[in-house]
Amino acid sequence: MLAKNISTYTNMPFWLADTSLASKIHANARFEIPQKADAVIVGGGFTGISAAITLARAGLKVVLLEAGHLGEGASCRNGGLLGPSFSKLGVDGLERQYGRDNVHETIRESLVAFNWLVDFIKEEQIDCDLSLCGRFRGASHPSHYAGLIEQAEELAKVVDFPAIAVSRQDQFEEVGSNAYYGGVIYPTDGTLQPAKLHRGLCQIAQQAGVLMLEHTKVRDVSKQNAMYKVQYDGGVIDADQVIIATNGYTGGEFDKFKRRIIPIRSAMIATEELPESVIRSVSPKLRAHGGTERLVAYYRPSPDGKRILFGGRAFGRGDQPQLYSKYLQDFMIRTFPQLEEAKIDYAWSGYVAYTFDHVPHIGKMDDMHYAMGYCGSGVGRANYFGRKIAQQVLNQVEGKTSFDQFPFNTRPLYTGKPWFLPMIMKWHDFADRRGW
Ligand SMILES: Cc1cc2nc3c(=O)[nH]c(=O)nc-3n(C[C@H](O)[C@H](O)[C@H](O)COP(=O)(O)OP(=O)(O)OC[C@H]3O[C@@H](n4cnc5c(N)ncnc54)[C@H](O)[C@@H]3O)c2cc1C
């Protein structure tokens, strides 16, 4: 079924329509940049801000430089789905390469990361609509149901992570769609409003003394003797330590990192406000949702329970909402015919960062600290790894992570432009249609 309503949407993240957010932070002015800092952080998303908080609270003089607005990257553009992201780890492949025990450690640490962020939000009283509402993952093909259950059983042997199987007959208590063949509920997963979380973190960083500059793109980092020279548009700052936190927006100025990241554009739409009965007909328990398709689609109600936010694949070069909003709306209506009349109010996209081994990476390369490559699941991970990389800068034992063990590899001839993606997407589309 195709969309009847070709809506006139606004091309911006729904999250930023909350006008109260604008007054929450005031970036510092250029003239406030000192000539020397203990640490310079490149990138003002979750990774960068989280690292900045940890360093500043440890007493370091921290300057954070952001090329656009603070949070302009993926951190204020995501769906706000929060979980330990087990399904994003390519567990089988990793086990073959690194051994079972090592990989089990990363699975356990993924849960630690999720719990850490939930606790941090509560302790710091960050108002970000955090709701531990649970997530329903539906089997998008009859053959996928058994695999979902098996995956949950395997995880239960490694980590205390509850999962509840739901048969096709019972699934309508969880999701108002015929598109699934049963599924699994992860009752401890959650949702939040990412731009509110980001603003809350920026406020904490400012209170801790971090200088944060917008529209200040870093052009080059070099090391002379023991000191870094960080060149940004309009100036240079010396620093004892540098952290690269540019994730899917990593550019040629950090060529070695760029060659290790596969930037993939991901998109979202938000419907107009709908009656509660319609929202509950989609998500009776107001949970987060997704399916088992290879071309990932995920959705959730807005925090006020009035809209459906639906995310998935983007098309074309650059931000082309005329292409992806139609695709996502058609996908949404195929899954939920009851949304056929719903208008789309917002459409937007951003870059996620995949890696060749499907694992986030953290460490030191070319003498620069970094954390990146969250493979589309970065709300929890970026915050956690931002903190970890700061602890590594501080030489604290807490900075050690089981993710240190994975080498951050590229592939021969890969320059950072994923020319192969259209072919891979076509293959995934083909496989999805056959339920492989
Ligand atoms: C549409 C979409 C939906 C998503 N949904 C979810 C979800 O539901 N759940 C989930 O867990 N994850 C989701 N993600 C992924 C998640 O948002 C990211 O993994 C996370 O925000 C990454 O945070 P970050 O700080 O590492 O990177 P970003 O937030 O992308 O920040 C990187 C920043 O670096 C800046 N930068 C780059 N180069 C320079 C330079 N030279 N100088 C200065 N600054 C520079 C950029 O401008 C950017 O602001 C989604 C992502 C997108 C795009």
UniProtKB/TrEMBL annotation:
GO terms for cellular component: cytoplasm. Residues 38-391 form the FAD dependent oxidoreductase domain. Coiled coil: none annotated. The keyword Transmembrane does not apply. InterPro entries: FAD-dep_OxRdtase, FAD/NAD-bd_sf. It comes from the Bacteria. Gene3D superfamilies: D-Amino Acid Oxidase, subunit A, domain 2 (3.30.9.10), FAD/NAD(P)-binding domain (3.50.50.60). Transmembrane segments: none annotated. Keywords: Oxidoreductase. The keyword Oxidoreductase applies. This is Glycine/D-amino acid oxidase-like deaminating enzyme. GO terms for molecular function: oxidoreductase activity.
